[in-house]
Structure formats: structure tokens, C-alpha cells
Amino acid sequence: MSQIESVLHETRSFPPSEAFRAAARISSAEEYERLYRESLDDPEAFWGRIARELPWIEPFEEVLDWSGAPVARWFTGGKTNASLVCVDRHLDGPRADKTAILWEGEPGDVRTLTYAELGAEVRRFANALKARGVKKGDRVAIYMPMVPELAIAVLACARIGAPHSVIFGGFSAQSIKDRVEDGGCTAVITADGGWRRGKPLPLKATVDEALVHAKDVHTVFCVRRCENDVDWVEGRDVWWHDAVAAADDDCPPEPMDSEDTLFLLYTSGSTGKPKGIQHTTAGYLVGAYLTSRYVFDLRDDDVYWCTADIGWVTGHSYIVYGPLANGATVVMYEGAPNEPHPGRFWELVQKHKVTVLYTAPTAIRAFMKWGDEHPAKFDLSTLRLLGTVGEPINPEAWMWYRRTIGGERCPIVDTWWQTETGAIMITPLPGVTATKPGSATRPFFGVDAAVVDEEGNELGPNEGGLLVLRKPWPSMLRGIWGDPERYRETYWSRFPGLYFAGDGARKDEDGCFWIMGRVDDVLNVSGHRLSTMEVESALVSHEAVVEAAVVARPDELTGEAICAFVTVGAGGEPSDALRDALKEHVAVEIGKLARPAEVRFAEALPKTRSGKIMRRLLRDIAAGRETVQDTTTLEDYSVLARLRGDEE
Ligand code: PRX
After folding, report:
1. Cβ of residue 526 lying under 6 Å from some atom of ligand 1
2. Which positions of the chain have pLDDT values less than 70?
3. Which of 230, 398, 428, 535 minimizes the number of CB atoms within 10 Å of its CB?
4. Could you tell me the CATH number of the domain that includes residue 605?
5. What share of the chain is helix, strand, coil (3-state, %, to 5)?
6. What is the CATH number of the domain that holds 170?
7. How many domains does the chain have?
8. Which residues contact residue 426 at a Cβ distance below 8 angstroms, ignoring those fewer than 6 apart?
9. Residue nearest atom 21 in ligand 1 by C-alpha distance
10. Parallel/antiparallel/unpaired status of strands 219-223 and 185-191
11. Measuring from atom 18 of ligand 1, which residue has the nearest CA?
12. What is the pTM of this model?
């Protein structure tokens, strides 16, 4: 593949309204161009100035040290602390009594925390961590529902300099075990349960199962949320409320070097086990801070709601670190979007007078399907800006979002970025950019994005190719935990000197980027990255399965759905019962989000002469397409015919 053909020809364009533009933080194309040029031509001046807007315990000496490329060092010599940036900096002025977190549980219970209250909770829990022996540099795993304690836990870890590793609450015990082991975590923070569609999700029980053989974990903190029964390991388990009741609220922030690790966050790659993406302190915060400020145009009277879970990078950067660094009021919601009715999100927007809403295309497509009557029941007139993230948004969903939720008045920021980039990289600036349905538009400040061919040559307008970033940026990952070689190999070896994002893209004649999805074996299901290889290993770990190949097929709702082709051994017979058992097996091994939408039994899988499974052929079959691909390397042609015949 040298070029990727783009089939989307979208010509609509929506400049911001005059009213929005006039009040926006960046309100003219000239100002954007000037800042963008400066950020590329003189990154030291640009990023140095932005970084100095944040509090420092000791000032930095150098803005960027790229001599150890591809491992960047930003703001070297400086010391700060993420909790200082996100909480303490707001405590001396009027923001102390401003709402920091406005939380609603699935059952409808509401809790608000002012910045002053958030600060006290963070300091108290930081002391609780210390009292159990957690110290600077220790890794802490967090497996929690979307309750305020999750944000508090993250900031408390940051306060004492213990890198957190948040594991999404939908992952299985096996996935927790792998992540806890890989990160060498010594403490875990969880809850008895979290409300999901009216039922408690038993998080503590899943943690217990994951930790059966984990000798290194000395403490499990448990928040009481659902009051469901839990098992208790004496000596290891501590109730959150007991620990904070015994802790005082005086806890100075640990001075962290700019390059000290702030957190690990695991994400799927095409091969091997999940990668512990490593982010450090100052550069990450500067990126999260600046993007929140300009992309969401945040101001003091905004009520900002990002619907992601803190278990994903979106929640790290745009629920916790970015908006709090800006002193915003952040809405947090625990439960499902259709509990107890399909209008729950819109009810929340009305009730809490949300002004900025950031969500995912998969959610937008679900809302479209549930029908316009649900948002129509609620007053959405407080909304002034909408955002999307996680996967390409189809123009139809974009237009629906604009019309039905945004009342044709709210700009939409379609933001492209990754766990690895830490912060938004390609995005409209809402007061400046003329948006186009389906395009993430232009690179953010400091981002030098390009579309290249297989040899790394930049392609011309509208030619599809591979998306690369040509300059280091402050919030970039610093590595893969414990595996510096894999870091180089995955991101920097394909084109020396260029960061390879793994996405296909084209850039149009106006310089707008159109992301065309992953080019590696990574699936994007409901905006979450999953590796085909992990799902395949889960399948072959089932006794009946000999071989498995997993591909994505387009899905109206989830973007991509998992289609698994499996061959069974002598012990197994293809049957509906086995099909269901295999789906369930993957859900147990990895988590429900990885459950295949479809399992197809095959006598054999199409392979090249060298034995590699030809996934591109399977992709066509899964999507019900005639193959137009080159099949000359296929070992056994009859396999393809039989797979197709199987389709009915
Ligand atoms: O393929 C791109 C897609 O999601 C990938 C990153 O996934 P993850 O690290 O889980 O982070 C998701 C949230 C930042 C990207 O490589 N992606 C993300 N945002 C967009 C997108 N694809 C198209 N348009 C987007 N706005």
C-alpha cells in the first residue's frame, strides 16, 4: 500500500458565528496564524511563555532538550506538582469557593466540591496513601467507577509523586492483573461497586480476583459506593472513609522534577501486550492546560462536561488535568447514557446548565438512533460549544450533532489525538476555524503534522497516506513503561525522525486534515483501541479454538465491530452455543468492550505461503465486500471460496 484512497468528498463548511467569534479567546485568523507560526518557528519562546503561566516550585532552565531523541525533555531543571497546578493555584482567590467538580451519580444523587473542598480531600487522601507507606515513585493502580473519589485519588497520587495507572472499570480481572504486574504497582484503589444501568458493577470483587497472586500489592483502598457485599482481606484492605477520617489535611505537594513520571496509561498496540504509555509532569500539564483553554475556549462561567471515563486518556486530560488547571467547573457523571431513559444526557445538560460538551462519535450515533424526541424534551440552550473525540465522525452524525444538540449555533471541535500525544493535536479553534463535517481541520499550536507516503515523502493535497508528526511537543509520551526499545520501534522506526501515529489521513487544499482510521492491526470499537492480537490470544486460550483471526467490520453504531474467524480442533464442534461461549470468553478475558460482535467458524484461514494470515481478505469478507485485493500470495484459494460460502 503506497497510498490510501479517500472516498469522502465533503464540501460543506461552517465558519463560527459572529457572536461566538467576537467573544472567543482566539478570535481572528491573523492571531491564530501568528501564534501558530511562533509555536513552530520559536517553540522555546512560545512554550516557555505558556509554561510560565503555571505555578512552579523551582523555575525551569531550558524549554526543550531534544538531544536524547526520541525521548524529549521539556522544561528541564524545573520543579512543580500537578496538584499545585490543578488545585492550589486556585485557592488564594475567588476560585476557592467556585465549584470544581459537579458530580451526578447514576441514581441521581448529586455532589459538588469547590476547589477548596477538592484541595482538602486531595491532601487528606494523599496523607492516607502515605500512612500506608506509599511514597514518591511508587506506582498506584486505580480501578474505580466515575465518582469524585476517582479524581481525588488521581490528584492525591500526583501530590505525593506516586505515578497512577488508571485501569478502565470495564476491564476484566486478567487485564487488571497484567497491568498491575507490568507497572509494578504496590497499591490499588477501588470501590465496592459503581452504578451501571441500575445495578452495581462489582469492582472490588474483580480486583480481588486479579490480585490473588499479587504479592507486591500491600494495600487496597476501597470506596463505599453501592454498599454491595465485598470480601475483605485483613491487613491489605482499607476503607477509604476510614483512611481519610484518620488523616489530616496538611500535605505539602511533593516537588516533582518536570520529567518525573506523572502517570502510566495502558493502550493497545498491534502486537504484544498492552503498552504502558508514560507521561511526565510539566510538559503533559502544559499541553493539557493550553489545549483545554483554547480548544474548549474555557472561561470562568462555563459548565464543562466531558462524558469520557477517567479510565481513558480523554478523562485524564479533559476531565481532570486540563480543565482543573484552568479553574473550570467540571461535570462528572457516573452512569450509562440511557439510564433510566435515553434522554439522560440531555436531562443532565438542562439540569446543570452545561455550556461545553465533549463526547464521542459512537455516543452521537447511538443518540441519533434513539431518536430526536429525547433531546427535544430538554432545554439545551445553555450549550455554546460541542466537541468529539475518539474516532472519525461520519458527516451525517456531525450534522445531526450540530443541528439537534447544537441548535445550529454551537461550533463543533472534532479533536484528533491519542493516548500517546497526551493532548489534542489536530482540531478546530472554535472562534476561528471554519469547520467541515468529518474533518479535525488544523494542527494545534506547536504541532507539525504531515501526510506522507511509504517512503516518508510528503504527499500533495487530498492524497491519502500516513499521518506523522515532525516536531516534538510538550505532552508527548516519554516512553513505554519498561520497554524503551518498543517505544523506538513502534513510533520512530518507520520514518526516522518522524513520529508515526498509526493513522491514515489526507490533507485537503485548505490544509485541513481528514483522519481515515488506523492502518495497523488496531481496532477502534466505540472510540476505544483494541488490538486484534489481544482478542486473538483470548480466543485461542479457549480449549475449543485452534486458530483465530480478528478483523474489524464497519458498524453503524460502534464505528467498528469485531468479527472473529476461528477454526476449532477435534474437541470442538461449531455450534451456536460455542459461538456464544467464545464471545463470553473474550468478555471475561479482556472485558465486555472486546466482545466480538460476530464469530464465524472456518475450516481454515487464508494464509500467505509464508504462513501469515491475510487479514485484509478477511476484512472484505467480514464487511460483505467482493475482494479486489491482490490474492497472488494466497496459499490455498479454496479457503477463500469456502469462507465466502459460509456467509449465509
Ligand atoms: O485512530 C485515531 C482515533 O483514536 C486513536 C487514538 O486512540 P486512543 O489512544 O485510545 O485515544 C482516544 C482519545 C484521544 C487515534 O490514533 N482518533 C482519536 N480521535 C480521533 C480519531 N480518529 C479520527 N478523528 C478523531 N477526532
Report:
1. no
2. 1-8, 627-629, 633, 645-648
3. 230
4. 3.30.300.30
5. 30, 25, 45
6. 3.40.50.980
7. 2
8. 415, 416, 417, 440, 441, 442, 443, 444, 447, 449, 513, 515
9. 391
10. parallel
11. 390
12. 0.93
